Amino acid sequence: MEYNMSALIYLVLGAALLAGGVFWYMAVGFSVMAVVAALVMGTGGALIVSGIAVLLDKYSPTSRKL
Prior knowledge:
Number of helices: 2
Strand content: under 5%
Radius of gyration: 15 Å
Keywords: Membrane, Transmembrane, Transmembrane helix
Number of strands: 0
Structural class: mainly alpha
């Protein structure tokens, strides 16, 4: 249960950061602040991927296979 909750937190937080970065980029346009918006979008994408990884690790743990 705890893995599902942490995966859900990662996914929701990542989606919020990704959406916020996209809206921030649309607001600032092509400027220097777009680099910061791209970093926020990258962080959101990384959190989404880590949430998926935590969820997949719950269903097929790699520590038992080693």
